[in-house]
Amino acid sequence: MANKKNTFLLLNYFKPSIYLESFKKINLDSLKNSGIKLVLCDMDNTLIGWNERIPNLDILNFIKNVYAHNMEFVLFSNNVKSRVENFAKKAGIKNYFWDCKKPLLGKMKIVKKLFKYKENEIILIGDQLVTDVLVANRSHIKSILVSPLSRNNQENKIVQFLENHILKKLSQKNILHEGFYNEGEIGGNYEIL
């Protein structure tokens, strides 16, 4: 019995606050109304495909809209400095972090010190449970899980295996079902859990 309870508690570390198909479906009015002031965002497979370099119009508009809602936008990526910096400059992103080593907390602690927002005023957007959602939950901030834009063959096989295993467990416990998003109507409000 204790083992089943521990498994359930462990799975909660991988539960996103909101699950959406894409960053394009994020309702910034709803986030603003929920008190969010800082939007942290993964880059690869969240905003842009792993093999792409140039931010498209959807990405540029999303980032502009975050700023227009008086929220700060921070790129928060595990990728290397050259790729993150190049993308950030092309997308007009002022604040960015590379080599974040998610789900480790090192860079997240730096972000919290630099931006001085309360934990309930920060949200992280990402495409992976084992990096993005886990680091958000370990940091006591909200998270938005989006479906990955693409998968590459070079992607870490261990991460892929863990991701699939955790998704299966979350589905079995009726916590999260892949492809069943909780976005409701486009433009409608959604509850942040």
TrEMBL record:
Organism expressing this protein natively: Spiroplasma taiwanense CT-1
The record's Pfam families line, in alphabetical order, gives: PGP_phosphatase (PF09419)
Any one Gene Ontology MF annotation carried by this entry is: phosphatidylglycerophosphatase activity
Write down the Gene3D superfamilies for this protein, in alphabetical order. Answer: HAD superfamily/HAD-like
From the Swiss-Prot or TrEMBL record, give the protein name: Putative phosphatase HAD-superfamily/subfamily IIIa protein
